[in-house]
Every structure is written in C-alpha cells, then in structure tokens.
Amino acid sequence: MRIVGFVGFFAALMVGIGSNISIMIDYPSIVIVVGSTLAVLLCSGSSVNNMFGAVFSSRASVDNLSDAARTWRLAGVAALTMGGIGTMIGVIIMLRNMDDPAAIGPGTAIAILTLLYGFVIFLIALALQTRLQGRAAEAAGD
Question: What is the pTM of this model?
Fold first, then answer.
C-alpha cells in the first residue's frame, strides 16, 4: 500500500502540473533546497547513508530505524526551512529588478518553486519518518 501511496502522490502532482513540467524545474531552486538540506544533515552529524539504508532494509535494528526516523525529521524541517529562505531570496531578486520587468521572472520562479520543493520534500520525509518510527516500535515489541 505504501508504494501505491507514493505513486498516487506523484501521479496527483503530475496531473496537476500537466504539460507544464518543464516550467516546474528550476535548477537554482533545487540547489537551494536539496543542497542546503543535505548540508544541514551533514553539519548535524546525521548519517545520510543510514537514513536511506533503513528505508530499504528489512533487517535494520531498532537503533538504526530510530536514528533514520530522526534524520528524516531533520531533513523535512530543513527542506521546509530552506524553501522559506529560498522564497525570501527570490523576493529580494524580484524587488531588486523591479525596474526591468523581464528580469522579474527568475526571482519569481525561485520564490515560488523553492517553497514548493521544500513542501514536497517535507511531505516525503514526514511519511518516511512515520513509517520508520512504526517499524522501530514493531521491532522493539518483538
């Protein structure tokens, strides 16, 4: 059922986006959100390998599952925060270019898409965190 949930989530996004997929991809926004989220995880000393490994491992220990759940929580919060910071960066770029209407677009894309990317990563991280916490509770009960 979890796979159906993830597929349904992305299918709903794709239906909403429709043929506009190319305008939904903004590399500066991706770098701001994904790059900064990864940097926060590395600065915090979190195990990024364990974070992904626990999701795909059926034999992870309770400690690994709990640690991975905490790391996914941090990743979600960091992504959402970086989406907000990216929005502020985009607004600053927009305001700086108010005299040139053609230059407002890139700032607008950064402002809106960084927040969108942050929310999407937050939702994915929240789902994975919840699942890993459930698996840790199951493993602890055995």
Answer: 0.86
